[in-house]
Description:
Blueprint: H1 3-21, H2 42-51, H3 57-65, H4 76-84, H5 89-99, E1 112-123, E2 133-134, E3 143-153, E4 158-166, H6 172-180, E5 189-193, H7 200-208, E6 212-216, E7 237-243, E8 248-256, E9 262-267, H8 276-285, H9 288-293
Parallel strand pairs: 1-5, 5-6
Antiparallel strand pairs: 1-3, 2-3, 3-4, 6-9, 7-8, 8-9
Amino acid sequence: MNSTFASSYELLLSAISELELQKDSFVLRPGVDFSRKRKISFRDMILSLLTMQGGSLSTTSHDFFQHRLPADIPSLSALHQQRAKLLPDAMRYLFYHFTQRLPTVQTYDGFQLLACDGSDLNISYDPDDWESCKPSGNGKRGSNQLHLHALYDLCNKKYTDIRIEKTMVSNESRALVQMLENIKSPAKTIILADRGYETYHVFAHIMAKGLAFAIRTKDISRKGGIAYGFRLPDRELDKDGKQAVYPMKLRMVSFLLDTGEYECIVTNLKREEFPPWRIRELYHLRGGICAFLSPIH
């Protein structure tokens, strides 16, 4: 077994054990739920939720409990009942308790790189839940989805924060601002993000927190994008810009891609430390979060 995986697995089991010691804080009926010995313990319930895949509940349940004697395998009804006793805060607590213990030793020239992105998660169909039911647009029935917002440490390959919202009421900028509040050490941290996060509201919150950022904007020729408002020329450049309403100094870097198109990045990184070639390098590094989110689709 890979040593990194083995140590991470031990940290996870340790976090689950500590969660179990505080289980009364994460169940519907403290002192009652998971207090008796049953086929599905609190620990079993947490581990089974973590290992479930995209198959049916029957299949995933069988995979988890298959090592047991037939008489000790719980029914699907029992699994439903035990799962209903857990509060969502249990998984939230486990996520933060586990990820904060993972090592954070790798940096990009002393900087922590946190990439922000999102992914849609399909859930069971419920046309009455308008907040999650996404219309198909072609006359067919829609689909219900949740939207996952994530902050990912590119150098250490770990998630540091998440937000989950119903897709029809999700808001990328709001989610990122909320996650910024949980960053404990803003010094020497760079936020990397794609289109959808390029708002002055986001920039203001990032800078107020003392963080650096490099965020991709819409094409410089498209209306609605921040870069369009500055009437940038269609060529490579490194330019400072000012926003008149709210005092804010931004730097815009445009560079030519291999496809022949220009990419524009808005940043507050100092030109002396991060010349255009390094901004371009950060742009390519940001793609690392896409590789880790793609298996979720």
